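Supplementary Data S3. Sequence and structure tokens for construct A.
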Amino acid sequence: MIVVENLHKHFGSFRAVDGASLKIEKGSITGLIGPNGAGKSTLFNVIAGVYKPTSGRVIMDGEDITGLPPHELFHKGLLRTFQIAHEFSSLTVRENLMMVPAGQSGESLWNTWFHRRRIRQEEEALRAKADEVLEFLTIAHLADEKAGNLSGGQKKLLELGRTMMVDAKVVFLDEVGAGVNRTLLNTIGDAIVRLNRERGYTFCVIEHDMDFIGRLCDPVIVMAEGKVLAEGHPDEIMKNEAVIEAYLGRGLKNKVKAEAQA
């Protein structure tokens, strides 16, 4: 579904992404891991159109989407969430969801004058869709709560819900577990698995919680210093010497190995 070919993103002399190539297969939940500064979020931002690449290509379903802006990628079904949730804090949870679909009749001044019935019908359909999404995510009891009052984990669920309000094909989740307690993280994980299995969503997930990655993701791609270091099943990745060294450094790696042999 997504093919990244020799992608570079430089900020002056700093090579945040330095020749990364990878594939995200349709119907997969692909994990993207690596130490801080590995280039994971920058890679996400380039794929999702937030940054234009210095060089290289991004292909989606055979179409070159390199450098397309986020709103165009949104219409193609490519969505991205962020480490820090971007909710409309003064609106209710339901209203946050209802705002997502583009091209609503109520956005036209002409329609507000002459097509009020159409607007009302659309809003009723959107409300029903939003309530179905909230029920799916097990947060229906928060429908009328102001989004700004939600916990960090609930805001991450809301962001996931926003992807469900449109025909998402592939969703990039950036550190979905950051600041989330274990119970809500399990709820988020369950929702991701259900969306993948029941609705055919393709996911790519950046996450530092390796238990979470191991439970959800196959394959796992490892980045270090802007490049792809390794790819494979989570169990294989956890035993990979180069991956261990990238995370721990050579000295700590040797210490861990010595302790394991003692």
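Construct B, processed identically:
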Amino acid sequence: MRRPVITARATATFEPVGRSVATARAFVRDTLQGWGFSDIVDDAVVLTSELVTNAVVHAGTAADVLCLRTDAGIRVEVADRYPERELPLQNGSRIAHPDREGGRGLLLCGALASAWGVEYSTTRKQVWFRLDHPERPAGTRSAGPALPTDALPVADTRVRVAVIQIDQDGGIGSWNEDAESLFGHAADQVLGKPFNDLAAWPHTPGTGTGLSEALHLSRWEGSYGIRAADNRVVPVYASHLRVRDSAGAPSTVCLLVLAHDRAVLQASMRSSSGDSGPSHENRVPATDPFEVFIGSPAPDDLDGLLQRTVERARDMLDADAAYLLLATDDETELEVRASTGLPSARQRFARVPVEAGTGRYGSARMPAVHEDLTVVPGAVPLLSGTGMRSVVTVPLKVEGRLTGSLGVAAESAGRYSNEEALRLQFAADRIALAVERARLTELERLRRGSLSFLVEASDLLAGTLDRDQTLALMAQMTVPTLAAWCAVYTVADQTSEPELSYVLHEDEDRIDGLKNLLGKVPPPDPVPTPGARVWTAPTEAAHASALRSSLRDVVLADPSQLAHGPGPSLATAAAVGGETVVLPLVARNRVIGMLTLGKPSDEHFRQEILELAEDLSRRAALALDNSRLYSERTAISQSLQRSLLPPELPEVPGVEVEVIYRAAGEGNEVGGDFYDLFPIRDGAYGFAIGDVCGTGPEAAAVTGLARHALRLLAREGFGGPAVLERLNAAILDEGARSRFLTLLYGELWPQRDGSALLKVVCAGHPLPLRLRQDGTVEPAAEPQPLLGVMDDLDLYEQTVTLDPGDVLLCVTDGVTERREGSRMLGDDGLADVLTTCTGLTAGAVAARILRAVERFAAEPASDDMAILALRVPEPHNH
């Protein structure tokens, strides 16, 4: 067996942290899309996500990801550095059961990959998978035989073929006269601009090929739209050919014709007479179009296959229109998937029941011929208002199961009989299997794309606990991937009305108009019924607003105003005029909001998209409720924590005071460290700085007890040792909730000579440091036992006099125990920093200490930190 030839490689290493999984997915997605493997990128992303999760979460090591591009496809290798950790076993096999938490990544490898395996070495374990790239023939797809003139395809008398050349970066390099005539853009207006700016393209995941991918294929044919100079979308049929110049630079040559001239470029056969005009009277059936269709290569995707089918069905019966419907998964409804000669934008994805009524004409399971629809109005709802009068419909069946319905219609009555029905049924029987295979292939691709979409969505939603950001993510994930516009309603409680919280439209210029429209419409009812339900209020309001706008324009009859095109109401009606659905956001058995999705211009949602939206809504609801709970908890926590902080510090005559406090942990304002400065009596002030064992709410509770007890006892006239001994007893009385406490407590008396007298007790706390004017630093107290450990304490206080210019620095161990690897700042490091603070104010001293602590280590602090600086200023000389 020939070994694949490696043509490119990309590698990256991801640290053993949770966010690495999302980063690895992005790395693989960007790499494969850059290589042009858009068909298999979703499978690769899902498999990489599982394998990197196994490495960084379960094995707990860094993950090395290697992407290899070969002539046959791609190979991705994920290696961890824990070779002893074996794969999950079940019944002797290394494939785990689907219900088990572990090993599901290997199940996915077995289901999605062309091949996969596991390799061990002495230092690492490597899991790899291979995905083969679908074959894409280079050059012309098919070549037809030489035909007589009367059998050539019908085209307009003057066919314009736009020739556009696009460079490898997507910029327009050439633009011929026919392109200018068809689309209204002069060459000098578009040359050098991205072709994507002009091309309208569907954004449904898993269906069709995106324009960027199509431009990089060696050969491609298909339909899309070009935005003309007047902002309308011109439907075109395009043929792309990838070429390179003499220097080897690649580019894409695009040939485009109007959609009804597609026979000029399409490699299909359409029967006609020698007359080049399009009149129906001159068409004569030649060979069976389905003969050519069956014998020629099928289009690359389901949409192309269905479109070709309806066009040939129309030509076979010399009809004016044709349409094809596919059955939904439960086979209770039919969904319009392709049409010709009908307003396809209005019909696409519209659904009708399989059993529409009684009798053979009411069931799509049987052939039916309607000679005149005006006699039986509403017999074929899809044709209402189209001018079609006669119609023949036949079922598509595979192994006796209804898979779809094919219909052909004409503008004149009595055109079809049972003979035409038999011909159409014969053709439908021959094409039904090919259609069903293509439908299943598309469905599988859509489901795989949906899985990748949900993986990314879940990761994004789990990455934030902010309510507004969660709302924005919900909308941005649905627009334009699932819908043209989105609105999120939130419900505060069961008695509150739904509130419009976020609105997004794929066209940013229409967001304000859409928001105004929805603001005038009563919100949908917050019912918990699962699944999507149709909501007609926005469409009805948009159409009513458009009608009022049109009447106003007629009354005004101001040509200068009408020349500017439709007003805001008409634009809003076009943007919101399609199907609108509402999905409940249910979390913890309560409706917390509604996710509203809409389509423009009478478009409908396909069933697979609604199912994907329902999956997304469940994840979004939980994320939104989590953000609500987090916001409520944070608000309560911060309110309680603020109550533990001391009020504004008092002014102490003759003494500068500065405090800096940093609580560890996100959302914490108070932790286990605390400080206080308060007046005891005239001329006397108490100060304290302490550290409760641990962090978080439990430590904060002891913080509140200590701070309030210190104030109460000091103001009752107790000295420092008596205050701490009684506080020690109060802490021990807490029993199991008690915590160890280190505390530096002192009393301060400013003196008439400009100095300050302090009496301090240091109970197990880092010693206070005294900085003299000459730059010397020395401890200002001796260590004594900490609080909360034993009943009987023999504490004593020490007297310190601060002369003018002296500084007393008090800190918690979050300062001295600041670490960088094995290094620690320590008491000596703190003293060294303090020696550089001579002559600084108390505020400058505290700021310099904090800056030194922060610069000592790159990682955020893991412990609470408090800094209290007291300084006696020098007297001013006048």
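Residues 220 and 527 are 47 Å apart (CA to CA). The mean pLDDT is 79.
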